[in-house]
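INTERNAL TRANSFER SHEET
From: sequence group
To: structure group
Subject: Tubulin-folding cofactor D C-terminal domain-containing protein

Please process the attached sequence and return the structure record in the designated field. Keep the field labels unchanged so the import script can parse them.
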Amino acid sequence: DNNTLQDAEARVNAINGVVSVCEALSGTICESSSCVLDDITCFFLTIKEEVVQTLFKALDDYTVDNRGDVGSWVREAAMDGLERCTYIFCEKQRLIKKAAVHCSSNTEDHDFAVEANKFVLFDEDLAIKLVGSLAKQAVEKIDKVRSIAGAILQRILHNRRTFVQCIPHRDALEQIIPNDSKINWG
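Return from structure group:
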């Protein structure tokens, strides 16, 4: 009954807003020397368990109104958000592992190093769900949705700046989805 909740633009803006907040906060978290691994874990697990799961749910938005499939707008924003969150996870995990290596040589920071090496943000389960969800969107009937999904899958597989680990059957996927900017996903 709430018109705001039924408004596709509001859902798109909510997705874009929450992902932007995640990016902004993830860029500043633990800049202070008093930050502990528990704070990092809590923050990123909240993104993983709340934000990312909400983005996956948004991929099931097939709302239609007098303008057509407005749910596709929400799905497009969700795919973009999932890509951005994936990079947040992979980059932070890389930095945490790097800090753990640095701390492992210092006996005072040894506990941090041990715990940091156990800390996994982007795991195989998340990778499977991400790739599967994007593949589903890449075969949707709307050209723009297919284009966005295919391009995101391609960027995730072939990103040179932020390597996305844990993707099962990566070699096969890279052959199916080559790093070719001329592919017309639509």
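Handover comment: The chain has a mean pLDDT of 87. The chain has eight helices and no strands.
Transfer complete.
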